[in-house]
Amino acid sequence: MKNKALNYLLITLVAVVWGTILYRVMAATKNDDDEGAVMRQAQMAKTPYDDYSERTDTTRLQLNYPDPFGSTPVAHKDTAVLSIHKSLPVSMAFNPKPMNNTVNWSAIKYAGFIRNAGSKKLIAILLVNGNNVSLQEGESAGNVRLIKNLRDSVKLSYNGQTKFITIDRSAQ
Predict the structure, then answer these.
(1) What is the rounded (10 degree) CA torsion for 130, 131, 137, 140?
(2) 83 lies in a domain?
(3) N or C: at which end does the chain have fewer Cβ atoms within 10 angstroms?
(4) How many CA atoms lie within 13 A of 23 on its CB side?
(5) Which domain of life is it from (predicted)?
(6) What is the pLDDT along the chain (172 residues), one digit of tens a residue?
(7) Does residue 76 sit within a domain?
């Protein structure tokens, strides 16, 4: 008998819970009049349009604390006073930079690369004025400095100018 009474109690409890759920769903989906919806929309406060304009600063900084790094006296400065930006005179004259010495890049050709078996680093093979030069990244020979080896091209610095040079198939 004890289990039967407990079953009846649990069944009524489940019925009450499901009844409450169904009542709330029906009350929420109930469509009385459109006037209620209009009244609800009228009661909602409309948010103002934000035009993202710069707002004036309304805070004041308190800069009257001592200098933590030295013994200089603190100069009290009022931050509420707006500073007026003075326009700087604009120079309309165009002064082009003088041209640097032009570099003859045709004297340098990238023939390819090899991999050092011991250190696993790439060694670029360059033809500089007809002479074979082997360089790793960061090394230089004469005025030519290898900055970066990207296998299909190298970034070189020559007489203060940098340039990427691709593999020249005719140099092989």
Answers:
(1) -110
(2) no
(3) N
(4) 6
(5) Bacteria
(6) 578 999 999 999 999 999 999 999 999 888 765 555 556 666 666 776 767 777 788 888 888 887 788 777 656 666 555 556 666 666 667 776 666 567 788 888 998 889 888 888 889 998 888 889 999 899 988 888 999 998 889 999 988 889 998 887 765 5
(7) no
Q: What is the CATH number of the domain that holds 122?
A: 2.30.30.830
C-alpha 102/C-alpha 110 separation (Å) is: 20
* CA–CA dist 172, 170 (Å, integer): 6
Structural domain of 121: 105-171
Question: Is the residue at 146 inside a domain?
Answer: yes
153 belongs to a structural domain:
yes
Q: How many domains does the chain have?
A: 1
Task: Output the pTM of the full model.
Answer: 0.40
Written as one letter, the residue type at 15 is A
125-151 burial: b if 16+ Cβ within 10 Å, else e: bbbbeeeebebeeeeeeeebbbeebee
Tokens of 45: 């406060």
